[in-house]
Amino acid sequence: MGLKNLGKPWSDRFEVGLHPFIESFNASIKFDFLLLQEDLDGSIAHARMLGKTGIINADEASQLEKGLNQIRLEASQGVFNADQPAEDVHFAVENRLIELLGPLGKKLHTGRSRNDQIATDIRLWLRRKIDEINFDLENIQKILLGHAEKNLYTLIPGYTHLQRAQPVSLAHHLLAYLEMFQRDRDRLVEVKSRVNTSPLGAAALAGTSLPIDRLYTADQLNFTSIYSNSLDAVSDRDFAVEFIAASSLIMVHLSRLSEEIIFWSSEEFSFVKLTDRCATGSSIMPQKKNPDVPELVRGKSGRVFGHLQALLVMLKGLPLAYNKDFQEDKEALFDTVVTVRNSLQAMSILLEEGLEFSLDRLGSAVESDFSNATDVADYLVSKEVPFREAYQIVGRLVKLCMKEGILLKDLSFDQWQDMHPAFDQDIYKRLTPEHVVASRISQGGTGFAQVSAQLENWQNQFSSLKE
Ligand code: ARG
User: Fold this and answer.
1) Domain 20-110 in CATH: superfamily?
2) Which of 104, 157, 244, 416 is 20 to 30 A removed from 390 (C-alpha atoms)?
3) Partners of 225 in the beta sheet?
4) Closest by alpha carbon to 258, among 295, 307, 309, 231?
């Protein structure tokens, strides 16, 4: 208490130093040091602009750029790190620049505020992370496509209400996830278009009286546009909410896939076997193999949904323009990116090396139920029986079978005929699961012809990307 606050740029304005606890409460360097590269990129663009516009001279601009590159080098050697005695990454860089260049270092922050600086850094960082996640999504899509290609004719029970409904091609089931991940990718591209706008030059909130050139810095940093309103530029975090919302949907999709793998691998379903690469044993029950990977992915989805909620609540009451509350966006964004990327990677490894479909078990599963009942009704419809009547007739047949403990295929021809004279001998071949699946010829249905057309579309999409 009472110490002069010498370490701060505002030390001439203040009488006493910060309380040490408040100092560390306020500080963000422990996490925002992650933005060092982007902070240096933004500062280099800013320094060049100061030189180009004549706000500082060309030699000074190039000295600043050299100093900033020196800091980049020191960071790569591990000597410039998050242990700097600075509040945040911006001050850490500025302090070091002043150490390196003397009074010239004090010119870097001309016409700029940390408010537009952090808004720039976070956008540069997120833009890169969006590309990385997009790549991870494409990778998992390709792995799923590989399984789909091998399993066009593998059948799996299809469910509604988790009750056996109608058999489907396993490829069809897997391609549904490719569709979800494609929507995720499309959403990320859209979010990126809004991340890719430059706030740099908005200064603290109102712009600056210096003749800066915002289009020049935007161009240097490969932004596609600049914010039109300086207040909006420093206080907009919509892009962060949009990104975490898009990430939440990625986690929803991963979590649904996880849930399926978890019950597919249970004794009760036994549709897949977990290999030793991604499963774990129990500490007490020697017979067990646990699906930890999909369980963790399913569990981690909650963190990302939590970050979305945190950002919405953080923003909802904030007046224009910058408020320190914004500092809370960093850890939410950083953890979202780590969680989504790790989950995508773990799930990709699981799909590639961690599970095998149990073809025998899938084959017997689709043979042992009444999931061909709709097809019997459709058969009657083709013989001009109205659907509602056909539906009731099949309901009676199912009841009869259940009473006798048999399946539809086990009914005698007389039993079919007794129920309705429109039944012919060809009813039997309509009952096989292969026939049931093949007959789903409507667009987007599970019929083999439809699914192989979908497979081809995906193959084309991925091969055209290579060209
Ligand atoms: N660490 C701050 C943040 O994350 C940087 C901007 C600080 N600006 C300010 N006026 N205190 O938002």
Assistant:
1) Fumarase/aspartase (N-terminal domain) (1.10.275.10)
2) 157
3) 197
4) 295
- Nearest 5°: phi and psi at 296? -65, -40
Cβ of residue 28 lying under 6 Å from some atom of ligand 1: yes
Reduce the DSSP state of residue 200 to 3 states and report it: coil
Which CATH code fits 115-152+166-365? 1.20.200.10
**115 within ligand 1 shell (Cβ under 6 A):** yes
Confirm whether pTM is higher than 0.85.
yes
Measured in Å, residue 391 CA sits from the centre of ligand 1 at 66
Stated as kind and residue range, the H or E segment containing 363 is helix 359-365
- Spatial distance between the Cα atoms of 361 and 114, rounded to a whole number of angstroms: 61
Domain 373-458 bears CATH identifier 1.10.40.30: yes
Taking alpha carbons only, the member of 282, 289, 300, 306 closest to residue 346 is 300
Question: Domain ranges in the chain?
Answer: 20-110, 115-152+166-365, 373-458
Regions of the chain short of the pLDDT cut 50:
1-3
According to the model, what pLDDT value does residue 284 have?
Answer: 76
Q: Which of 33, 42, 243 is nearest to 127 (CA)?
A: 243
DSSP per residue, 13-74: T-SSPPPHHHHHHH--HHHHGGGHHHHHHHHHHHHHHHHHTTSS-HHHHHHHHHHHHHHHHH
> 202 — phi, psi (to 5°)?
-70, -15
Confidence (pLDDT) at 126: 98
Query: Could you tell me if 152 and 456 are in contact, meaning their C-beta atoms sit under 8 angstroms apart?
Result: no
Residue 465: the pLDDT is 64
The alpha carbon of 328 and the centre of ligand 1 are apart by a number of angstroms equal to: 10
